[in-house]
Design brief:
By secondary structure, this protein is mainly beta. Helix content is 6%, strand content 54%. The protein contains one helix and eleven strands, in the order E-E-E-E-E-E-E-E-E-H-E-E. The longest helix has 6 residues. The protein is globular.
């Protein structure tokens, strides 16, 4: 069980950038963590209420890199600040491993 998920830096999103794609990398002392056999979900919450999920591209998962995408539907549902939470299994038992904040700009 993970008591405190890792904190990802704020991701600033402007309407003209949509869909907005950003990467999240997992590494240990020996390099990238192979997530190719993982099930990954990324829930987005606004004021504690779930508003949807981010698309997860696992093309580079064997090297520990996941690409997350914020689409128009999520952007429209977001408040000024929303939180995303990434859960993974089986390596991390389905716990929230890392989370970050989406910042809706102009």
């Amino acid at each position: 069980m993970i008591d405190r998920p890792g904190q990802w830096p704020d991701t600033h999103i402007y309407a003209h950038e949509l869909p907005k794609r950003f990467d999240v990398a997992f590494a240990n002392a020996s390099g990238g963590v192979d997530l190719s056999a993982s099930t990954v979900t990324v829930v987005v919450k606004n004021d504690g209420l779930e508003i949807g999920s981010l698309e997860v591209d696992m093309a580079n998962a064997s090297g520990g890199v996941l690409w997350l995408t914020v689409d128009q539907t999520i952007y429209d549902a977001m408040g000024r600040y929303s939180t995303w939470q990434l859960s993974e299994s089986p390596l991390f038992g389905g716990d929230v491993v890392v989370q970050g904040r989406l910042v809706k700009e102009g």
